[in-house]
Amino acid sequence: MMRALPVLALFLLAACGGRLAPDTASPDEGPQITVTSSNFSDADPTDWPGRSPDRYPVHGIDLSRFQTSVDWATARANGVNFAFIKATEGGDLVDPMFEEHWRQAGAAGVRRGAYHFFYHCRPAAEQARWFIRHVPRTPGSLPPVLDMEWTPTSPTCTIRRDGATIREEARIFISILERHYGQRPVIYTTVDFYEETQLWRLPGVEFWLRAVAGHPGEVYAGRPWSFWQYTSTGVVPGIAGQVDINVFAGSEAAWADWIGGRAL
Fold first, then answer.
1. Contacts of 246 (CB under 8 A, 6+ apart)
2. In the chain, N or C terminus with fewer CB closer than 10 Å?
3. From residue 232, how far is each of 91, 185, 236, 257, 259 by CA, in Å?
4. Mind giving me the DSSP string for 7-42?
5. pTM score, two decimals?
């Protein structure tokens, strides 16, 4: 992630139709949860000073329009156990690769969820409705994700609202999606945003945290997390170019339990 995307014409897909039709027969719907060991590398590896991501058995990726060529079956066989796929941004942008990534990941048996990049110049409720319009209620899906970061390079919105306002906007967005999808969204964020807005004060929220130079237990002062994004320069068989790589916080058994308690 870590990209505040400009408003490009290729994103303006609203006129091309509404949301995807629900998938009802994806291979990832069954009760069997198989974890495949990762066969990844890193174009710019970190010399981990403490706990390494290699200690965690369940690895996955997140991706967007920048990953235009993905052989999902190969990626799955090489350790992509889950994928968070960019769906929407703000209230008028749809990632042009979302539909393709969503369908192909499901066909390959990859546990998938969709994420929304929050735009600080639009109301949270409007953004939640936009996400719902484009992301189907697909059985077996992971919880939706709210991606909240500062956007200093955005050509249209660089405001930095106070923490109380940010947390209230997050609460509104999460509540609307939880009612629609039947599961509570996860929040993805970065160290500076997390600290400056005191996101940890949001009750009942699971976090997906970015930490590319140290373990999140150290970088985020020991606060709990469910997913850790540990690199943006990952190299994964089946995916052309570099991609973000993540780990789940627990064991294979904990992953199965987490899936059972949250997936639709």
1. 59, 60, 61, 62, 82, 84, 208, 227, 228, 229, 230
2. C
3. 26, 22, 12, 28, 25
4. --GGG--GGG-SSPPPP---GGGSS---PPPP--EE
5. 0.89
Q: Tell me how far CA of residue 157 lies from CA of 115, 150, 166, 220, in angstroms.
A: 20, 10, 15, 27
Q: CA dist 1 to 16, 165, 182, 231, 263, Å?
A: 25, 23, 25, 10, 23
pLDDT digits (tens, 9 = 90+) for 166-176: 999 999 999 99
Residue for token digits 């995916």? 239
- Sketch the domain layout of the chain as residue ranges: 53-262
pLDDT at 191: 98
Say how far apart CA 264 and CA 262 lie, in whole Å: 6
> What residues pair up with 93 in beta bridges, in sequence order?
89
What amino acid positions are annotated as catalytic residues?
A: 149
- CA separation (Å) from 113 to 10, 50, 64, 147, 157? 23, 29, 12, 12, 26
- d(CA 92, CA 13) in angstroms, rounded, equals 8
- Two tokens, residue 66: 């920048």
CATH number for the domain whose boundaries are 53-262: 3.20.20.80
> What's the half-sphere exposure (Cβ side, CA atoms, 13 Å) at 154?
19
